[in-house]
Amino acid sequence: MIHHNVFYYFIKKLLIFMTSMFLLSLAVFYAARLAPGDPLVSYYGERAEKMTPDERLWAEERLGLHDPIHVQYIRWFSNAVHGDFGISYKYKMNVMDVIRARILNTLLLGGIGFLLIFILALLLGIVCAWYEDRWIDRLICKAGVITSCIPEFWLSLILILIFSVWLKVLPSSGAYEAGKEYEISDRILHLILPMTIVVVSHLWYYAYIIRNKLVEEIRADYVLLAKSKGLGKKEILFKHCLRNILPTYFSIMAISVPHILGGTYIIEAVFSYPGIGTLSYESARYKDYNLLMILCMLSGALVILCSLAAQSMNEWIDPRIRAEETDAY
User: Fold this and answer.
1) What three-state secondary structure class fits 106?
2) What is the torsional sign of CA 234, 238, 239, 240?
3) How far apart are CA 318 and CA 237, in angstroms?
4) Run of H or E including 264
5) How many CA atoms are closer than 13 Å to the CA of 320, on its beta-carbon side?
6) Where do runs of H (alpha helix) occur along 35-52?
7) Beta-carbon neighbour count of residue 202 at 10 Å?
8) Listed residue (306, 192, 295) closest to 251, CA to CA
9) What tens digit of pLDDT does each residue of 134-162 get?
10) pLDDT tens-digit readout, 67-78
């Protein structure tokens, strides 16, 4: 019976994921094609403006843009199911090849930034909870509130002005110098500024959550009982309070992926960092339909999977939610 319930539980999650992806593809496809702009400019460049009506009709038929939107969607969906996502209008190559050349840069920036955010957030949360209402806690809280209120693009421009224009010690754009793609030191230099923005703009939000969770645990009744038994503050904080908030901490990590991912995309655009974020901006700007679709689908799949993972974690943390889910079958 238990295996039967678990099987249907995973089937339900799979159906939710597939339905969400289908609705996302439908929304993105129609929104992109109904938005103003000329996709022929992306493919043909300035020549599109000089085309005669007959030439424009021929070009649209060649790219499959002359058919009604629902016919275009059915054709795209049928090809996508078979792994064919079309070619990029701007780059004149398979969209997966375009993404493959950029995705490593985003994984480096977003992945390392994600780990740094939650490692530092945990450390800051512990420090603030340890020194609750003392000057260290108040100082970190005030500094965190100030940094979290500064817009990402504005802080990016300030750092570029200071470290790239005035001091000339760090590059202002790109992921590496020409011909130095595999040099780790050059990669690190180009990551410093965008990585700083990724971390600073999100750090305090999650550090504050962790601080408050720890403070709630410290004020719980079991802590008073532990103190009455002679346990020290350090032992209580790390062996009991911290361990009790770890499931919530991992759940927050899963939920935070869309938040951090969106910030990473903005930062890539500001620093002209050749990643998925910059590619998404270009595909939307130049009406590169096929590239825009797959980028939205990949980003959406990541967000949906992380949301489902966070929901599963919450069900695992809270037995009452898990019981309700399994009893439903």
Assistant:
1) helix
2) positive
3) 22
4) helix 242-270
5) 0
6) 39-44
7) 24
8) 306
9) 999 999 999 998 988 888 889 999 999 99
10) 899 999 999 999
pLDDT (tens digit per residue) in 162-191: 999 999 999 999 998 887 888 889 999 999
- Residue with structure tokens 């079991």? 222
CA-closest candidate to residue 257, choices 228, 298, 285 = 298
289 vs 29: CA distance, rounded Å: 8
The model carries a pTM of 0.84
Q: How many CB atoms lie within 10 A of CB 39?
A: 22
Name every residue whose Cβ is closer than 8 Å to that of residue 210 and which is 6 or more positions away in sequence.
Answer: 121, 122, 124, 125, 126, 245, 249, 252
Residue written as token pair 């499959």: 64
Measured CA angle at 12 (ends 10, 15), to 5 deg: 110
- Residue 2, token pair as written in the block: 């238990």
Dump the DSSP string for 117-178: HHHHHHHHHHHHHHTTTSHHHHHHHHHHHHHHHS-HHHHHHHHIIIIIIIS--S-SS-SS-T
The two tokens of residue 236 are: 């209580």
Residue 287: helix, strand or coil by DSSP? Answer: coil
d(CA 326, CA 5): 6
Query: Under a CB-based contact definition with an 8 Å cutoff, are residues 295 and 276 in contact?
Result: yes
Give, in order, the Cα–Cα distances in Å from 168 to each of 155, 160, 164, 189, 279: 17, 9, 4, 12, 27
3-state SS class at 156:
helix
β-strand partners of 94:
87
